[in-house]
Amino acid sequence: GVVAAVLNTTLLTAGLFGLSGRVADGAAASAFMVVAGLAIYLTLAVFDRARELLKDPAYRRKGSAVVFNIAINMAMKQALLVCCSVLVIAVALMIACHDRALDFGLVLCIGVLCAVFSSVFIAIPVVLALSTRPAITKDRA
């Protein structure tokens, strides 16, 4: 799940950055590494919440999809604070600086949005598809 999220985030960010017409240099490469780290952090935050929920006997009876849905809701507050902080810094870099810092800020802006998307809509479905736990059913809802 984490590998899929990081690959999706990095490729999507690189593709969108390439569409901007800018050339990737050392600053952009370092921003790609920051974005990959952010994708790992966001994905592991959701997985950690799911693991904590599965320790509770009340949640063990529920399906994996229900547990991950609750974990996403719990982790989103923390993720939004982190992502908003990164976006504020990235926008400030884009406004105040030129050339390399502009590329760094642009990659960060694109990458934050892609990392949130990948951690929720790529990593979790991959884990649910590979999971041996039963998914949600109507009698368990």
Structure, briefly:
The chain contains six helices and no strands. It has helices at residues 2-19, 26-55, 57-60, 64-96, 100-121, 123-130.
Biggest sheet statistics? none
- Please state the CA-atom Rg, rounded to the nearest Å: 17 Å
**Helix percent band:** over 70%
- Low-confidence sequence ranges: none
Structural class of the secondary structure composition? mainly alpha
Order of helices and strands: HHHHHH
Query: What's the end-to-end separation, in Å?
Result: 25 Å
Overall shape: elongated
Strand content: under 5%
Count of extended strands: 0
Number of helical stretches of at least 4 residues: 6
Summarize model confidence as the mean pLDDT: 84
Could you characterize what this model shows?
The chain is elongated, with a radius of gyration of 17 Å. It is an all-alpha fold. It has helices at 2-19, 26-55, 57-60, 64-96, 100-121, 123-130. The longest helix is centred in the middle third of the chain and has 33 residues, at 64-96.
Task: Give structural attributes.
141 residues; mainly alpha
List the helices and strands and how they pair.
Elements: H1 2-19, H2 26-55, H3 57-60, H4 64-96, H5 100-121, H6 123-130
Helix pairs in contact: 1-2, 1-5, 2-4, 2-5, 4-5
